[in-house]
Design brief:
Elements: H1 22-27, H2 37-41, H3 45-57, H4 78-92, E1 95-102, E2 107-111, E3 117-118, H5 124-137, H6 144-155, H7 159-168, H8 187-208, E4 223-224, H9 226-238, H10 245-254, E5 275-286, E6 292-302, E7 305-316, H11 319-338
Antiparallel strand pairs: 1-2, 1-7, 3-4, 5-6, 6-7
Helix pairs in contact: 3-5, 4-11, 5-6, 5-7, 5-8, 6-7
């Protein structure tokens, strides 16, 4: 079983479509109450709002890309983290890469940075950010329908909602049905829309400072690095000036795991020592050989410290085994940080 359905140009990974009940997803959705954590942490939501309004008034060319975490100093805790991750990768017999950014120390840890994996459902976060950016550029914020779709897409990994959000990026000023497109329409038009949507998503990647991940006419089956996913999370934690601050707080509330599909990987840190909050998005998909790609990205808040972390992996015969490996890797990172 996979959590993925991709755009019309997709074809590399083979997967089945598994959907949650949309009625349950919308009716019991997380994110109904925005937590406003950035205000509590003093990150400056009012400043973010001002920046978003300026970005909405200005052209896209005035928006600057965020600096990449790849230029951050190396984390000295790596001497403790690396042996644990090497043991996990060897024991599971899979390829595994992890990146973690310590926001307070300004240091980056990377393990097997060259490894890539298909994005799978973790792409649903930058898709949501792209929809928010388009709303800000038009001088507003997410509509009620858009918010419902983001809840279903990010909070419950609903693929139909994601497909509708992705498609909407190609048609500025038009929008969406609650049930998604019943008629796929002309294949050539569908491919053109997917290309335009990919262009908008890639603009968001550029603004986030993401260096090695790009959409190519589809979503979910494009390759990514762990450090790129950390770069995306870092933008959410530190804030960006090209989306509405309330929308950004809403996204973090949706990423607070309430669905069981999100309680592994980064989600495994819920209830951990001194952990006050966790934001997470997980993804899983099979490639053409039948092997599973298992990914998790998110933010962990421990006491007054913040961490952006991501693990990507592939080569698992069993989906649940891959999820266990991802959870072990995330725990090993934080155990190493504690010393």
């Amino acid at each position: 079983m996979s959590d993925e359905i991709r755009g019309p140009a997709a074809g590399r990974p083979a997967s089945d479509l598994a959907e949650p009940d949309p009625a349950t997803a919308v009716g019991g959705a997380p994110g109904g109450a925005v937590m406003g954590r950035r205000r509590a942490l003093g990150i400056g939501a009012s400043a973010l709002l001002t920046g978003a309004l300026l970005a909405a008034c200005g052209g896209r060319g005035e928006q600057e890309a965020a600096p990449s975490v790849s230029g951050a100093p190396s984390d000295e805790a790596g001497d403790r983290i690396t042996p644990a991750l090497e043991e996990i990768a060897a024991r599971y017999g899979a390829a595994l890469s992890l990146a973690g950014y310590d926001h307070d120390a300004g240091v980056l840890y990377r393990f097997d940075a060259q490894e890539q994996s298909f994005e799978a459902s973790i792409v649903k976060v930058p898709i949501a950010l792209s929809v928010m950016r388009r709303a800000a550029e038009e001088g507003g914020r997410l509509s009620d329908l858009q918010r419902d779709l983001v809840v279903r897409s990010v909070g419950y990994s609903d693929n139909l909602a994601t497909a509708e959000l992705f498609r909407s990026l190609a048609v500025q000023g038009e929008y969406l049905s609650e049930q998604g497109p019943d008629d796929p329409g002309d294949p050539a038009l569908q491919e053109e829309e997917a290309r335009k949507s990919s262009d908008v998503l890639n603009e968001t990647y550029g603004l986030l400072g993401v260096e090695g991940t790009r959409a190519e006419g589809s979503w979910g089956d494009n390759e990514t690095h762990a450090a790129d996913q950390v770069q995306i999370v870092r933008g959410i934690v530190d804030g960006v000036d090209w989306v509405d601050a309330g929308d950004l707080d809403f996204l973090t509330s949706v990423m607070t795991p309430e669905d069981e599909s999100q309680n592994w990987g980064v989600g495994a840190m819920i209830g951990g020592e001194d952990v006050t909050d966790v934001d997470v998005k997980n993804g899983w998909i099979q490639d053409d050989s039948g092997a599973w790609h298992i990914n998790s990205m998110g933010a962990v808040f421990r006491g007054d410290r913040s961490y952006s972390v991501a693990v990507i992996s592939h080569g698992f015969d069993d989906q649940m085994v891959g999820q266990e490996a991802a959870s072990e890797a995330i725990r090993a990172y934080f155990e190493g940080k504690l010393g």
